[in-house]
Batch of 3 targets.
Target 1
Amino acid sequence: MIEVETETAEGIRIVAGGTTSAVTDPDHLGVTEAHVEIGSESLAEAEAEAEVVTKEMPRDQICPSYQTTFPYPKALDRYLIQTSKFEELFEFRFRVPEDSQIKGSDKVSTQQLARVLMTKAVTGFLGDNFVFDGVSLGWSPTPIVPVGEAQSNIVELEKRRDGKPNSVEVSVRSTGTLPIATLVGYIQGGKIDLNPAGNESIENILKWIQAVFRKDPATRFITRPNSSAYFDRSPETTMMLRSTKNVLEARRGVYQSMQIRFGRITLNVDTATTPFWVPGVCLIDTACALMGTQTGRLEGGFLANPEKFFVACGRLRGSFFNIRHLTSAKKDKKIRLTGFSQRNAIESTFEERVGDDESTTKLTSVSDYFERKYGIKLQFPRLPLASTRFGDFPLEVCFSADGERYKEVLQGQETADFIKFATAPAYERKNQIQHGLRLLSHHAVPTIAAHGFKVNNTMMSVKARILPAPRLTYGGNRPMTPRDGRWNLRGLKFLRPSTIKSWVIVYVPARQPLDNNQLERFGSEMVRSFTDCGMTVPREGPPIIVGNPYGNLTQVVQDSIARAHNNFGTRPDVIFIILQGASVPIYKTLKAGLDVHEGIASQVMLQEKALSGRGSAQYLANIAMKVNVKLGGTNCIAEEPLFKSGRCMLLGGDISHAAPGALRSVNPPPSTAALVGTWDRECTAYTAVASVQESLLGFIANVKPMMAELLKRYAEKNNGSYPQHIVYYRDGVSESEFQEIKTEEGRKLHELCQELGAQTKITIIVAIKRHHTRFFADRDIASKLGNVPCGTVVENSSTINDAFIIAHPDLQGTKRPTRYVTIVDENNLGADAFQRLTFNLCSSYARATTSVAVCPPVYYADQACERARLHLMDADDGKMKLGPVHANLRWNMYWQ
């Protein structure tokens, strides 16, 4: 009997929930063999044996004096899957040889091959219990063809547009039996900690399990090829996004995925929420919503500003629609919109065939053709046409298809509406997950049973540790210990407050501006609030410059610098910018100018928040925290034993890619990469370097020269010495990219240290935020929302530092833990040091008085990436280059 535990993302109970949420009991971490057994032992016997095994936490290598006992609250998550032992499970490989395609056939893509395998001719041959990975591999509990042999079938596809036949030859070859025992041995050998990329046998076994559990929901729900999320459209799971004029809706579906977690194979079940285009909406109405106009003004608006139309409606690119003017047999056919034509229905013409003679044609406009052929007089003939590979169509005959995901980034209020629907308290999220499990109905799926699986619908129960809150130090060596991840600045001063000798406010109103008296009162409040935090500022509030949002903003900046110089005798240390309504173009112009050309720190504020009259003291205290670090100050430090053991450097790395719409352009913008690193003893002062690289490249291409600059700056501030320890937190990495990061970044950092003669030991920790693991706490320790306590840690491995850490307090919805995985560890951090360091850092985020969900090096690297994107400019070769940050700002956290 092979027994495999799977997790459902539901949560630890503490409950691991959500998505990949099976959590393991730390007491069981050293006995993964008790959870995956070959032989006659029952699961109950294996678990009974596991209960008496305890695991000693590894001691810290750098800080051996640190000892703390942690409580282990009850935690629960994941589902148990039992499988019968197969004597044989057969694996098959599929392909459509190009040289064997019938003459005249279209080339068969991977997606088409998947559809070919769903045809009756093929499914009848393969059998009901055959499963396919969506690419080239398939599995069956019965031998379809003898091992080592191949069989070919001719499959007729849908006829081509010219009416010619479209048939392909599909070759099915049996590659042998699937070595399931290999996976069991892999787990029992303690090698299950990292993604098994590169081990083909293990990868194929995991693909098989995924395929078994995906086959049924993929036929019953809306999904994408090889996706783990499944959606249905019902009143209970769908909400119109009214901020989009009801052309977009949010749908909540169910997520399931087989994953190697907590020393076992788990089935992760969670909720998944995604925006969709509302089906059946005419693209004219969609265009009006995206343009923010009414139907009667759409055509005139396009003629007045074509660029606005193409930008706004570019969000439709790539989506599918139906065309209603065709016969009933074709009107439900989905067609992908590839873009918009430059000519309208009157200007766009083609040669229309006249009568039965194919050689007789006449030039016809699209507008005339629709009126004569279908009796449709176009109401918007001057609008661009929807372009597809089948031709161009008027927007008014196109209607959004069902099941079409919205692929762009939501904007403004759309995001707020979506988040409101997607978030749910932990107790509600848990119920949603259990509802999703019932929808999947694993017990009623014949294929799952045929492959020997059975799902236990009870979440797994695990344990977790709760770390003590860190000790923070503010000005005057005043200590502060967060409570539930929160604290207040009242009565506290910054540890190292900065000094402002000259400052100015630039006010950019979009509508009716405020009068000067209101702005002057706000300036006086700034003086009081900043002084309360310990900063030294002029007694006189900042002078005020009013800028025209449609005017020359560069000149506005120059005017503000001159005004500050006249008032205080020196250029401003910081420029405050108050915008009336968020404006990305204005923000980008001002920030890029001040960061690159002027070298002056800046702080943007929204009038709606800054001058609302509500909570102004708290708001300005938050602004003071940001401004203080932008000017080189330090708000507070979180005490960490690791920093006292030698010269340490915290490093954060991230890559920012352009939006999906921009990536589909002819010349897609490059990705921006950033590294941030500390240079002070307490590891709170960061400096940043950034670069541009090829779009969508997964590793930091220029990591070596970027790191060389950071080490140069570190040595400059530390009497020529390099750090003894580097802890590098890397963001934006999936499990399949671990090895690439070790090779492309870790190896180059190690080479650099050797070249510089630096005796530096490097630890690389990957922070993974995008996952479906959630934890749910027992009532005795749960918050009002049902969440686990701040400081909860659930270990994912017994052999490496790999853990889920929940560092933040309740905000809204169910807490999402961050998974931290050590992929390089020359510092030999023990589990205690690794977890304590990461958790303590979460309380040192410069712009918050709460512990944050992801440790600051990751946040700062992400922010530095996004700021670098504002510095992109055109280069002489037609590509884009990065404008260098002014030397005045290189030591300060200007990106805050």
Note: The CA atoms of residues 71 and 296 lie 66 Å apart.
Target 2
Amino acid sequence: MTVRTSQQSQSTADASPSPNQSLSFVLHTADSYFNVSQIQARLEEADTSRSNAPPNLASLGQKLEAPDTPKPQEVLEQQQQYEKLGLTGNVISATAHLPWTIGITKDGKIELAPYPGKSVLHDSLSYLSNSSTWHHTVVGWTGEVLSTLSPEFAELKEKDAIRPRAYSNEGHQIGNVTIHDPEGSGFKEAFTQHFKEQDSVTRDMIITKDHRRELETLLQHVFKNTIIPVWLGEWSEDQDNTLILSDQARWYRYSEEELHKKLDRVMVEQKDESTRAKMFEDYRRLNEAAANAILKVYMPGDIVWVSDYQLMLLPAILRQKLPSAYIAYFHHASWCPREMIAELPEHEVILKGLLGASVIGLPSSGLRHYLEDYYCDEMGLASAGDGLINTGTGLVNLVNVPTGVDVASVQHAAYEDKNVGQYMSTIRDTYKDKKIIVARARLDRPRGVSRLIEGFESLLDHNPQLQQQAVLFLITTPDRDVTQDDKAIINQEVASQILQVNTKWSSATHQPILYLARPLPAPELYALLRLADVGIVTSDHEHTNTLSMEFVVSQKEKCSPLLVSERSSEYQETSFNKSTSSQSSGMLSNSAAALQDCLSMSEDDKRRKHKVLFDYFAKHDATTFTDEFLTKARISFVNHSPARDAPLLDMKALNSRYAEAERRLFMFDYDGTLTPIVDDPDHALPTKLLLNSLPKLANNPENAVWLISGRSRVFLEQHFGDLKNIGLSAEHGSFVRKPGSTEWQNLAASMDMGWKNEVDTVFGQLEAEAPGSWIERKEVAMVWHYRNAADHDSCLAKAVKAKALLEGERVKSWDVEVMLGKANLEVRPRFLNKGVVAANLMGEAFGNKENGFVLCAGDDTTDEDMFRAILSSKLKNEGIFSCLVAKNAKPSLAYYRTPEPTDLVDAVAQLSKL
């Protein structure tokens, strides 16, 4: 296919408005950011075929080391991860909207304009496609296909990109560049036939099968890798498979008007039941359409990365169809406390949808805790510690990864474009000796804008010296869910409020507020940002990062302070928040005081805080964000593999590998593994068959046999102490007695046990409130048991609340973890678990050898740590017999399953005879 480049293509410098013109800040010309030579070079490199040889797996996603990732000894080496997971090297990014808006002219030409916002997501997609070593497939809804005559598309054409994005190939520039019809394709004629001239209200379009095929072919050239558009509309009954696009905004209506507003803590307008049901049905259809598109290109071993709130049902839909898929979800938007999200009638099905992912990412620990609270307190799910949620069918890992954008492109746009410097000269001359305050906000949440204006007015009221000196440049952008009518109403309200302030404090030579009601051209914007004495961001959470970064990067010379709202700061981590000023969204006096503090800040404080902020954004750029999340996702996939039905223990293979191996290791849990779970733990005693079989195994010098239990060392000593050649580990690895020894090692001897007093107080109250429950006070751990309590369900709820209390207040100063188990709540040292013991034993038995034999059996979550340690070894799969003891299949890292403890004991007895 031959694609011609538009004759209107221009370089950045050529397309920028001339600085010699008077500054309008509102009326400006459009800009294009991709030059033809770059695009032609990209086209020569492009090859979207999935049949290409896979990239070097050892280097996938490893161009930059992600910060704050787990230590190497805690996870598999990268190459081992790929081998164990069987990754293809392909990432499928599922997004609700492609990074472009598609416009169609009356004569059949296609124009692409940047889809506004979503800088973090779009920069991440760009990095994966153009710079990383992953193969990348993007799946997303086309968005509203617009007539290029519509006001919306015209506004996007006028809106300059903030900075260049490397998305383009020859003939496919983002911005105001037309993608021409390939010669002889019939594409132009077909679209001309069906295209309807629309006004700003009517947007019906008819798309045939041939139209879709042609458009999809063109889109393939925009990314270096594969792009799969998702089409949504009503299918006609004719044989041409025609798609009718009408009321295209319906697909976003629920996510924007209901879900996003609730997550952002904005009042949601009440709707009748039928309207709400229709909106949610469209939301579900969007998610199902995305799933169907993914299924068409998915290959076992692909990583599916789902992004943001528009697709919160997608992970569960995919999990139903792809039980073993590697699914990750990242939430870029804001979040709210659990009691607020629970106000949505559909909250449970939406939040259950996320649990189809193995890992759920959020930008900060604060937002992660909101989600964790919902799952534990609202849905009653158990926390397994360290962000792990036990769904009852598997583990989901909640992680926080600071988001980032393309810092380098902002630096280039702010400092390399000569027009920026010329605009700066014009602004200096116009606003000489003024204090310039630049505020950026989105009009979808007008309350923040209103409070900002009132705060600025209060600043002037109480500081006469600033009344003729301070100038507020208010730059606003409406969000995508704001209609043209609502936009006009909001603009009128804001303009009226500004008029009040300007009338009050304007003079012949001074106007305190300049309202810039549409995005600025990049050179004008960066000129303002570089000259600002204070920067303000009053945006909802997901936009804070981008707007803050653009200000901080532009301030490397002046180092002016940044002011953000308190709620926006929830989106950031500590190092960011400590170096910004914050304003309360509800107290006007605080806003004025914060502005005054920023304007009076010393130069030393400015430079110190700016350095921290600049370093923060340089560290957390788009590349680091993407690499770090994929690293944490792969670790989660290794440690918490998707559910699969493990086969029953293969006795023939077990006996065969046992006979062949020169070195063998046996690791057994006790309760529920070697003996059934009973109501009274004191009655869970070993059978004679077990006591006869274990010594026989242990007496073989080729074998090492260990019991690794949560029981106390007193219990293990009482029942297994006479078996001298068996290793014993008590209290989940806190105490160890090696084979042949009678001495116990206390691995927690140096730990401060002051936390036990706090736990005893909480557990004592639980015991008093739940008749039949009791406290087990171990040497290192403490457990509240409620298996024999009268009201089991009530005890589970109490355990969930007690866990939150302990983690949030009572024991947060100690390095302990609080774990919900089978009818119990346990507190124990964090650094000791069965996996630590198992890893040491694997190292002693096999070192770096690939050949060997290990039989490891357990029945609950704590035993998964042992299975994980085995996966971390270099032992070949043929020698690994990790076995889950469970009547029914459930998610586990174990390779095999046996239904009952008696089955396992029989297997041990059989091996002891070989």
Note: The radius of gyration is 31 Å.
Target 3
Amino acid sequence: MTSIIEQFEDSQNTRQSAQQRNRLSSANIGMTHSGFVNVRLEEEKPIFNKQRIDFTPPEKINHLAVCNNQLCMSLGRDTLLRIDLAKPDQPNQIELGRKDDSKVYRLFLDPTGSHLLISLSTSECLYLNRNTQKVRSLSRWKGHLIESIGWNKLLGNETSTGPILVGTSQGIIFEAEISANEGSLFNNNPDQFFRQVHSLEEDGRPAPVCCLEVERGLENKYFIIATTRKRLFQFVGKVAEGSEQQGFSSIFNQNQDLLPSFQEFPADMGYSEITFYTSKLRTSPKAFAWMMGNGVLYGQLDYVRPDSLLSDVQVWEYTPDIDINLRKPISIVLTQFHFLLLLSDRVKAICTLNGQVVYEDVFPDKFGMLKKMIKDPVGGLVWIYTERAVFRYHIQREARDVWQMYMSMNKFDLAKEYCRDRPECMDMVLAKEAEHCFENKRFLESAKCYALTQNYFEEIALKFIEAKQEEALKEFLQKKLNNLKQTERTQITLLVTWLTELYLNRLGQLESDGNSIIFQETRDEFRHFLSSSKHKECLFNNRSTIYDLLASHGNVDDMVYFSVVMQDYERVISHYCQHDDYSAALEVLSKHCDQKLFYKFSPVLMQHIPKKVVDAWIQMGKRLDPKKLIPALMNYSQMGSTQQISETIRYMEFCVYELSVTEEAIHNYLLSLYAKYKSDSLLLYLEQAGTHASEIHYDLKYALRLCAEHGYLRACVLVYRIMELYEEAVDLALQVDVDLAKSCADLPEDDEELRKKLWLKIARHVVQEEKDVKKAMNCLSSCNLLKIEDILPFFPDFVTIDHFKEAICSSLEEYNQHIEELKQEMEEATESAKRIREDIQEMRNKYGVVDSQEKCAACDFPLLNRPFYLFLCGHMFHYDCLFQEVTPHLSTFKQNRLEELQKKLAATTQSSKSRHRPVPKDEGDTSSLEKGNAGTSREQINSQTRSAPHTAILESEKRESAAARRETKRGTRGRVYFMFV
């Protein structure tokens, strides 16, 4: 046998008849002004592409069935050919083994491609499973000529069909089940059961069951469709959940008392055929087409309807070239948008959308008469066969031209759905829809569609202008604006300006008509347009133009709103100020917290609403620079009301006390305000500001001049004290209060001479001005620097001594006490000098011995290499080592004192080396010491005594070093002798 299936001819017959395409030209759909170039696209492949299978059958083909890529073919009288289309080069030929004259009447293949039923002309039925080579007879089926099978799509599998329906030529519907299992020894029949469930009639007589279809709907509802030559029956019923395996008899029992629902047509061509279309995304068919005597009944399947499955039903009547008596249609196949009719020599494709014949393919006579057309519900391919050839149709891009049909039917939503990936077609649909809406006075919808097309902008705009449809024009412009790219700045500017003008015209018209509701809605829409973030850049760049348009229409409110949107708060505030709405202006200022605007508008606002302005300033806190607000404050503090002045002082106090501002200008200004308007706070402020110039933030000279101008003497005294001009402070204080002068006189604590001078001023004032001797005596007790003899010259020549007798006596007693103290100090000094001379004499007679191998107790290096110290306890240290060891343990004062002594020793050593004088004798030292101590106080003697050991040690060090060198030269045994002084 030759190779078959899937090996196609290299040169395929792709010719098509003139009726294959009935495309609509652009002229027919009114697209003369589309922005797309109206040219013919590249030649597209046909939707229905016929391919002949490279297969020459050894015998005539009687029947063919295909499903789920499994193809079964009946050849001759007794041969069956099975082919797995996935493995077309491995055909399987089976002999039926019939010895009688029976012929194959029909072939039925289930949806899985596993179960093949062979109906014989002798009213017998055979069964063949895909996994076996053995053809088995169905004994229970004998005596019935099988016309149709209703397969069970839910329960069918490779080994069992599940409950199925069987239609016979006598109008009987049986329920059966076939199993591929071999069964037991006594029962090896594949048919599990075979029972009658219903019978169909036409005109009172049994009618052959031409087709059967079983579908499951929602909630366990089942639909059964059965057709005869003229009738289409529907059975609807429920099967209890879990009892699906029991079959469909319950459905027919539910309809037993009622006549089944059916549709009948008068014409009879001896048979009928029904076909279904199932999309790839669904398991149940969505459409049907029934070929019968009067034509083709087609429509949709609606599983929600309670009693009938069929909806949107239409009848396509046969064309004149189809005669049910002479040239009957043989088969029908349904696709998504077409149904194909098989005639004896040709195939016709009719569009289900408009009923037009869109394709016709004539077969050459050499292949013989066309016998049947089958569609693989799983693979979607359409198969046609003659006695000597097999053809296959590929259906591709069936929805390619559907958009044109929907468009011609004014079903624009569906048209757009099927051309969304083809912009040139989408543009044509939108233009057609826009024209359709315009003609039907649906201008807003028309504008929306026109905005999405590539038609000339000017023509569309003029079209709406001529029709006086401003709302539609506005809608068109808005949609166009939304579709523009951000780079198309010129177009955006044009549309934004035009739309603004349209909105303003509309608002003016509505306002004059008094329609407040529509006016408010339009205003809200306009403001939404002005605040659109998408066009914010364009509005900002052209804001002057928008302002001019708003001003020309007198639309002040929207101009203010637009200014806020553009963050042009200066314009908003200026507008409010010009209309004396200062509170609104301040509200804008406070809301947006722009410091520059505060500085600019505060002078105006402060004049009218000072309290609110100051509250706003205080709320801004440190974000405002008070120094920049001074011009506004000074302007209205000089010419303003009491409220403005008090608010100015309140803000200045907030800056000083709350914000701790240290700017000199702020403090000077607050001082001036206190001096002019709030004198009771002036002294308090000066006292709190500080007592030292480093703490003061105002100008002292300015403060002094200001206080002097307004006669605030106490404040002047306080400023003089801070300036440390104590004489001026005392002089001025004496004009106010003696106690105030006394407080000033005690301030120069480090300068006793100045203090005495100041107290003398106070005493003179008390004696000469107030002539109060008692108060003058109090001055003596207040200041220990003054004596009675200091103030006596201030008294007049003739004054009673009784007033200051006690003061004179007290002064004399003090002098006597002081003389006694001096005598005691002299005696102590003499005794101290005596003890020192004795200590020195005793020290001269002490000595110590240092070996040449002795080492420093700190650094462990030879001791005699450098100057060193020898203590009575026996410890020996280099001079520098001892200095380093002792220094860290001394206080800061003692460290400084040690450095001073070190410098003095260094200077003494240098002087001693330069003179080369011999060591003085003991008596000379003693006499010099006595001479030096003569006439000195006890403190001086003690001070010299404290420094003497260091000097003595240094001199001893020199003498002993020289002696050591001499002893070494004389040949001593490495020892050095030292005298302690």
Note: The radius of gyration is 64 Å.
